[in-house]
Amino acid sequence: MKLYAAPRTRAVRARWLLEELGVPYELIKLDLTQQENRAPAYLAVHPLGEVPALVDGDVTLLESLAICLHLADRFPEKRLAPPVGASERGPYYQWMVFAEVSLDPVVMEFFRRAPLTEQKNSGARPDEELSKHRARLAAVLDVINAGLGDREFLVGGAFTAADVVMASILHLAHTLGLLDGQPRLMEYVRRHTQRPAVRRAVSG
């Protein structure tokens, strides 16, 4: 398998999962500042020039969520996804998609707006659109809090790829200060981002 990746992108969650699986793979690092992702050789892999991309034999996957779903099912013996037909399989799908579709877009909105927010002076009028995003984020975090409860993991009492995807997005939210007043979610992020596989995924 080959994983095309760059630091501080969604490729980190794919690499994290590969490290959790402990399977051999080739890491191909792309320097986005040098536009290596726009080189013809990489555009032949990913026509949009985005990362990550995973090449697994005859299969090429371009979306980080698809990569995580594929990898967890590719190695069922690693138990990073509930078995097909298990009662936990539906909730597993739900949290994987919820993290990507409901949580990630609103967190990325704050990420994109962070430089603009810092430039505003104290007399600036409140940004009504930003207030709407804050309300949306609060609602999304409430859903995650309720789903997580007092458990360490999202699904089935064990660590799965759903925790990889969710914790990676919540980690970005935490670095942006969006989890202030959310001790349960902050502990969830702390616990999972201290896993040895994470350290390997962000090294070098």
Describe the structure.
With 204 residues, the chain is an alpha+beta fold. It is 54% helix and 7% strand. It contains 8 helices and 4 strands. It has helices at 11-21, 40-43, 64-74, 89-119, 128-148, 161-175, 183-193, 196-201; strands at 2-5, 26-29, 53-56, 59-61. A 4-stranded mixed β-sheet has the order 2-1-3-4. Helix 1 (11-21) links the parallel strand 1 and strand 2. Helix 4 runs antiparallel to helix 5 (128-148) and helix 4 runs parallel beside helix 6 (161-175). Mean pLDDT is 93; it is low at 121-125.
What tags apply to this protein structure?
204 residues, 4-stranded mixed beta sheet
DSSP summary: helix tally: 8
The CA-CA distance between the termini, in Å, is 19 Å
What would you report as the Rg, rounded to the nearest angstrom?
Answer: 18 Å
How many strands appear in the DSSP assignment? Answer: 4
- The poorly predicted ranges are 121-125
Q: SSE string, helix = H, strand = E?
A: EHEHEEHHHHHH
Name the overall outline. Answer: globular
Percent range of helical residues: 40-55%
Strand order of the largest sheet: 2-1-3-4
Mean of pLDDT: 93
